[in-house]
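Support request, please re-run this one:
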Amino acid sequence: MLRGLKISKDNVKLEQGIWLEKIYFNAFAPVLASYSPAEKGKAKPSPWVALDNGIEGTAHCQLVVDPATGAFEESVEEQIWLIACVIRLATAPAVDVPYVSSTSFHPPSLNLEQPIFKVRDGLRQRFQISDSVITIDGDILRHISEIIRLLQTFEDLVFLRECMTLFDESCVADNLRKSVTFSFMALERIFRSERRDTAKTISKCVAVLTSFRADERDRAFAKTLEVYDIRQNTLHRGQEPTAEQALTVVNVVRTALMYVLKSGHSPDVETLLLDWKMGFEKSQS
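Re-run finished. Output below.
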């Protein structure tokens, strides 16, 4: 199931064998959940279901993967991780997967065994600056489907898997310091280089990759360079980052990773730096 996300329709197909369904699943204690909201002043309605000492909260959406027709060759649980990571890329890092199950998060029929729900993302610091839940429809759903198709045709899957794993770790880290650390690990994996001035190198690469006009590149370069102050304060000065700072860094990774996905291959850092130099010289002439 996906927490922090809603869909307006009862179900939405994302790709062959992968779809979203509307649900209501409320883990009102670490070991108990219900399938319907309680009326004011009344107890949670039955049926209740047992949980494995997990996470309290409410989910309104479940991700369903058909093992026979899913779009990827990985196991169902690996596909759930991959698609959840895609949804975070397309929407917000606050979306998480508290539980996975071999059965639906809809109420079980009386003749079925009780489902067993496994904790997925664990107890962690979430990137929830507010209590809002994202409702996705239309353009965002098409964007998610587009990213899934881009994953299937990407040139270097090992590279992409490493980058997405680090991005995912930055979203599900159990504290903000770890999140910032994983975010910069992701950036430095995306733009791997032997150059010493990592901050300026990556800032130039992000600017070239995500901007077209010279003024846009200048702003993107300055903004990414400022983000490296968060790294300096967190990793070298021992300051605890705020949730807003952690979210800012994660969103730089999201943007860079999306442009890399659309390109279809891992970025050539030296080519990006040459493009930066040529654009800079052109702006000075």
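The two ends are 55 Å apart (CA to CA). The chain has two domains: 5-147, 155-284.
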